[in-house]
Amino acid sequence: MSWSARQYTQFEDERTRPVRDLLARVLERDVTAVADLGCGPGNSTELLRARFPGAAVLGLDSSADMLAAARQRLPGVEFVLGDIAAWQGSQRYDVVLANASLQWVPDHRTLLPALLERLAPGGQLAVQMPDNLDEPAHQLMRKVASTGPWAAKLRAAGEARAPRRGAAWYYGALRELGARVDVWITIYHHPLPGGASAVVEWFKGSGLRPFLDPLDEGERAEFLERYEAGIQEAYPAQEDGTVLLPFPRLFFVATR
Questions:
Q1: In Å, how far from its chain's centre is CA 190?
Q2: Is residue 145 classed exposed, middle or buried when 0-12, 13-18 and 19+ CB atoms within 10 A define those classes?
Q3: Which CATH architecture has domain 1-130?
Q4: pLDDT of residue 104
Q5: pLDDT 10s digits, 82-117
Q6: For residue 174, which of 85, 108, 248 has the smallest C-alpha distance?
Q7: Which fold has domain 131-161+190-246?
Q8: Hey, where are the domains in the chain?
Q9: pLDDT-based confidence at 54, cuts 50/70/90?
């Protein structure tokens, strides 16, 4: 799946707000090494480094385009290309951050113990994931995918994200692993000037990627036209033309 740092950072302030809220719940302690998994263009890494200025920082991402943007933003930070599911090594970290990335990684029952294993004693795994697969924007993606001439091409697109798990599931899974757990859900309401087209631009940087990547240029344009028509109906604009985009997000901080 391809990622575009330019597309993603169109809404950088809105996308960065959740990681600010997440890091505010990470406990102050002696921190010497931190990792940002799925670091994207480095916006979350920048906050992580600012929160723990004395720590060695690692950023990991599977997109070369995202890493190029991250290295330009933070030239003194170590950024490496790799998949979260395959992340290995002997280094232990005091904080492992995964902001809006684990939803793209399968098999969380296996993933969580592997991530906790990378923590130093007392280390913290801080995670934020979109919790919006049941929101109209995602329902429309699946509907347009299944009803258009591209249906065969996009049969697997709706399965690109890991199955939706609730707060209780993550609490239970992490407690079984011996972690102390703080878990919560926040629904943001992002004001997006520009109406339905702004909502489409938002999701072109994230959730729409698995649906758009397999299509040719003409199919992509038709898909987006149908999708935007549905978005306009599902998210009516305010009097000033702004759309309020509800966006539920699930957070947890697990301490080893």
A1: 16
A2: buried
A3: 3-Layer(aba) Sandwich (3.40)
A4: 92
A5: 999 999 888 999 999 999 999 999 999 999 999 999
A6: 108
A7: DNA polymerase; domain 1 (1.10.150)
A8: 1-130, 131-161+190-246
A9: very high
